[in-house]
Write a structure and sequence with these properties.
The protein has 13 helices and 37 strands. The chain is an alpha+beta fold. The strands form 7 sheets. The chain has a 9-stranded antiparallel sheet with strand order 6-7-8-9-19-15-14-11-12. An 8-stranded parallel beta barrel has the order 20-21-22-25-26-27-28-29, surrounded by 4 helices. Helix 9 runs parallel beside helix 10. It is globular and about 85 Å long. It starts with a strand and ends with a strand.
Amino acid sequence: MIVFDQENRIFTLHTLNTTYQMKADRYHMLLHTYYGSRIDDCDLSSLIRCEGRSFSPNPDEAGSNRDYSLDVMPQEYSTCGVGDFRLPSIELELPNGSHTADLRYEGFRLEKGKYTLEGLPGFYCAGDEAETLVILLKDFAAQVTVELYYGVFEAVDLITRAVRVVNQGREKVRICRCESLCLDFLRSDLDMITFNGHHLMERCLDRGPLRPGIQSVGSVRGTSSHQHNPFVMLCDRDADEDMGLCYGVMLLYSGNFEAAVECSQYENSRLVMGIHPYHFCWTLNSGEAFTAPEAAMVCSTGGFGQMSRQYHRAIRAHLIRDPYNGRRKPVLVNNWEATYFDFTADSLVGIAREAAALGIELFVMDDGWFGSRNDDNSGLGDWQVNQKKLPGGLKALVPRIKALGMKFGIWMEPEMVNEDSDLYRAHPDWVLHVPGRAPSRGRGQLVLDFSREDVRDCIYGQMKEVLASAEISYIKWDMNRSLTDVWSAGLPARQQGEVYHRYVLGVYDLLERLHHDYPHILIEGCCGGGGRFDGGMLYYTPQIWCSDDSDAIDRLRIQYGTSFCYPVCTMGAHVSAVPNEQNGRVTPLKTRGIVAMSGAFGYEMDLGKCTAEEKREIGSQVESFKTHYELLHHGDYYRLGSPFQDNAYTAWEQVSPDRREAIVNVVLGCTHAAPPFRTLRLKGLHPAYQYQIDGSDALYSGETLMKAGYPLPQMQGDYPAFQFCLKAVG
């Protein structure tokens, strides 16, 4: 609900449990007054106090009033070069060479439904599930208008934000910085939580107190990156899973980003988030507009768990566009770790035959099926079937897979090219490269210039021919290197600062074409695993390969960190063979299955090499996943034990919305002799309900299970796991 107090020029955004408020003051500055627990019918601008501060300049409108300075005021969208020395939200390079942005409130408009952003992903709604507020700010000297967009999803406690900059003057203006979000706090006694890592170990939680100065995470790799995720949290120092005030902010963007917090000398703090200013400079001609990507905020007063569940509900209902909406996704098998590049049509059908007998429903053919692709140094860019490996092409192979009762999926890496390819030999200028410099290579490949429409058209034309050749139900869209040598032959020198962003827009454009032309195809995103796991990609690819590390114990950390923002249904998770190829660890097959079930479930192994006992276990896992699919993928998610703490176990739980069913998952660490007895306290149950566990006759009240706990069984061997189901009776 959006409320406007016309007399006091106060805007109040209410969700079910939170309130967000801002005010246009007497000098036409848009000030941020409050974001927190819901407060009805109030003016919270009294929280903002003024006092003269030395070396904090005063705007011209303030005259002799030295108490008023932008340097200490909580701003809704911070200015640049006109008296506020903290993190700016926007920086303009004006025709006279100055770098300033002085924004004043000019007006607003209210709209039903949720705004959309041309060429960019965003949360969406049906009917009256959301409202939009657009506030107009203007730099009158520069003749630049900044439109602040707010989308309010009341039922899921979500507020989205975006920014559109319009050049209303006669001369060119250059944007050097344009944040999607600015959030000022009248306090700095907060912790910052970020999700960091590297290839094979993404989104590990890191928590620390804010300190004076600027703290930031971000990416200049051309993707949102394995190293830092575009989701951050600020919280009370004592906040935990179940209590305390916390704020989550996610950026729906898949390229270079920055999330920065500055604590001022007066113990205020400011969070800004948006496109990273590194090598970013966008030219706006007269009448042109630039749109910054969307950010989405959640405020929770019930700790991290409540915040996560709010994000999960919002993402499932209002962000991902899933062709299986309302239906169960198929369990898949991928041939990569079974065969790598060395396969034939018969060997692929053999893997599919073994999988079909175990109840697996989708066969995915990975890298190596196209062009001259026998290793990772050739073939990328030539998206035609390698007839030596697959005689008769997909027209011959896919019917053999379908005859087994399975769907067929395929791997592609559309953004990349090898120098040993027909495409590169014909169009060497189509890659990102700096004239006069030798290129940098990653995985033996170069990056196609997706900022250019002609490049995208060529790749999409090839993809359409492949998709037209057989019945394909799934695409794994991969991307296996960071961007270097970022220069485009399609843009003049003064616009090279636009290439990084135009590249991301190009990726979104091609994905949107796929979504429009093939709405039945499930697309799984991948970037060497989790290097582009962000809200922007989820709008186009409703699931993303969580990490190239498929080891179950490492995955506990990866999936735990990912769960703080992103729901289980978005996490690609597979059971692979042991010893694990990434770290050599041996874990029980049951453990690998339980961990992978809390994700978009599948297998990545040669099932023909499994023993009869292993095949029975796999068949049981597949059946269990199908039985509990709705609970696993759409239940409310509770973290019960952290793999980042010195715990003997990691545990998590999914609970149905009506709280009548739950599934609990526990993975133990290294086992020691004479271990202590342990008890696990559950969450999210109805205290008055009586629950059966795995259909046994014994009943436990929800209150007992949540307060006293459930006794964990004693188990032997390293990394054992178990899973149990609860069902309310009566």
